[in-house]
# Entry
Amino acid sequence: MSSLAALGYGPFFSSQLDLPAEAGLAPARVLVDLGVRLLLDLGGEERTAMLPTSLHGAAAVGDWVLCERLEDGAAVLRRVLGRRSALSRQAAGAPTGEQVLAANVDLVLLVEPLDAGPNLRRLERMLAAVRASGAAPGVLLTKADLCADPAAAARQVAAVAEGAAVLVIAAKAGLGLEAVHQLIGPGTTAALMGQSGVGKSTLLNALRGGESEAIGALDGDGRGRHTTTWRRLWTLPSGGLLVDGPGLRELQLWAGEGVTAAFADVAGLAAGCRFNDCTHGEEPGCAVRRAVVDGTLAAERLASYLKLAREAAALAARHDAAARQAERRTGRIMERALRDLPRKRGR
Ligand SMILES: Nc1nc2c(ncn2[C@@H]2O[C@H](COP(=O)(O)OP(=O)(O)OP(=O)(O)O)[C@@H](O)[C@H]2O)c(=O)[nH]1
Ligand SMILES: [Mg+2]
Ligand SMILES: [Zn+2]
# Structure
């Protein structure tokens, strides 16, 4: 495998090059986004690259970019190539701002610790966000050494994570690592996502066989202290690529389509509702509520679905409002330009 292919480069990206104009530019993958600079891997060679102001904020960890190599050895970013997938969340403070956490990720590994028992509602929310990203989901249940019955926990999780691989790990003791290597595979990009203190960096270090990242201490209440500060793409000895970063307090949904995909069981039941726009609230002939009464669908899972579906709808409405406002603004500029036109011509 070429050194670029080992980083995940392939026809999807190389076909985007505008040849011959861009033939002299070097493809590179973003390892770390340092704001005004990027740490890049140009295929076995790490280098920091400067960002022209027009490209500030344009690239995220995992992006494929084209850069120009200057004679003094420096690199300058020229273009960010189109993404195959992006894991995004709502930027804090901005109601409709998208923040890309990682780009071109094949597999998002949701990390949930077993010391306090898996939080199924939190997982459902994260799974919906992953489904919207274009990446496949997986669940890593960490700190299995602190759990009396990890197999039972894994079964509970598998029931809400249909179609996702669920692995049990005790990284400190080195248990379950081989399955993670196999799940990621050579040339595949995976990203660890989970709250602070769940053991993401401990797992990364165990997979890499060293002390790549600092490991945090836990607060008295068992919560993490945000030990990892920069999100970074790492290579694994097995040939996989893995993103580790600061813990996420919560993954706010960015795109709503993920909710239906993450709740295929609810969507399947809804096909049997009397009204095809049934909200599974007070309507007669609701097959979803009937399933809760029958015991085939957990009441907590329906509550979780309804909450996320409402959130996704509110977000979609905000996006629409922002789009309409932008349209009105363009309309006003056009109107003004048209009004000014005859006057200018008359002069
Ligand atoms: N018992 C046990 N403890 C673990 C295991 N994995 C991690 N820990 C402990 O959990 C704490 C937090 O681990 P980190 O790996 O720093 O957690 P993190 O998810 O990277 O946290 P942030 O970087 O803050 O997002 C440390 O005290 C680890 O020693 C495990 O498999 N078993
Ligand atoms: Mg960490
Ligand atoms: Zn219904």
Q: What stands out?
A: Residues 96 and 318 are 7 Å apart (CA to CA). The radius of gyration is 23 Å. Residues 200-201, 213, 227-228 surround magnesium ion (ligand 2) (CB under 6 Å). The chain has ten helices and 13 strands.
